[in-house]
Amino acid sequence: MSSRAETHDTRSEGTIAATVSSTRLRGVARAADYHRSEDEQNATEVSARVTYEPKAIVFACNWCSYAGADLAGVSRMQYPTNIRIVRTMCSGRFDPAFVLRAFEKGIDGVLILGCHPGDCHYIEGNLEAEKKVTTTRRLLEALGLDSRRLRLEWVSASEGARFANLIKEFTENLRNLGPTPLKGGK
């Protein structure tokens, strides 16, 4: 029995050493794979950030802001092309549901453009827009979205340069925020 136990111990030591060595190698390999996949994931995220171009929707008042956008276009002013302009009769007519739907569809930001206070074709439509934007921002925050993704600005028909600069600035701010979490990108 003792010889059998000795033989077993000898085999066990060799087997144990081989098993421990093999287990260590597999553990090291798994750790290396984990870190490699983590590094690849980080590289992919960095690459996505570098190539990321935010998408935005601009709701522009027909009477002032849309004309300002038109002036920027006919004057060949440079501004990002990854925006879509939606003409509304008044900035006060935008519906918060439009904003939520835009984010749900993967838009990174929404810019509402209206007439300067006191210049609204509908008297107080732009002031109504201000109230709606404040409420919608609170709703976005409650949903876990950064409220800076929604912005309200005043642009008159003669402010094509202001329009172009606002679009550049807004797009850059969205780029810094990264893809909307609703896209699954951040």
List keywords for this structure.
186 residues, disordered N terminus, 5 helices, Rossmann fold, four-stranded parallel beta sheet
Helix content: 55-70%
Rg over CA atoms, rounded to whole Å, is 29 Å
Termini gap: 65 Å
Summing up helix and strand content along with how strands pair, one would put the structural category as alpha/beta
Shape: globular
Q: Widest sheet: strand order?
A: 2-1-3-4
- What pattern of helices and strands is seen along the backbone? HEHEHEHEH
Q: Architecture of the largest domain, according to CATH? A: 3-Layer(aba) Sandwich
Strand content: 5-15%
In short:
This protein is α/β, with parallel strands linked by helices. It contains 5 helices and 4 strands, in the order H-E-H-E-H-E-H-E-H.
Structure characterization notes:
- The chain is of the alpha/beta class and 186 residues long.
- It folds into two domains: 1-51; 56-179, Rossmann fold (3-Layer(aba) Sandwich).
- The chain is built from five helices and four strands; from the N terminus they run αβαβαβαβα.
- Strands 2-1-3-4 form a four-stranded parallel beta sheet, sandwiched between helices.
- Helix 2 (65-74) links the parallel strand 1 (56-61) and strand 2.
- The protein is globular and about 75 Å long.
- 31% of the residues are buried.
- Residues 2-8 have low confidence and may be disordered.
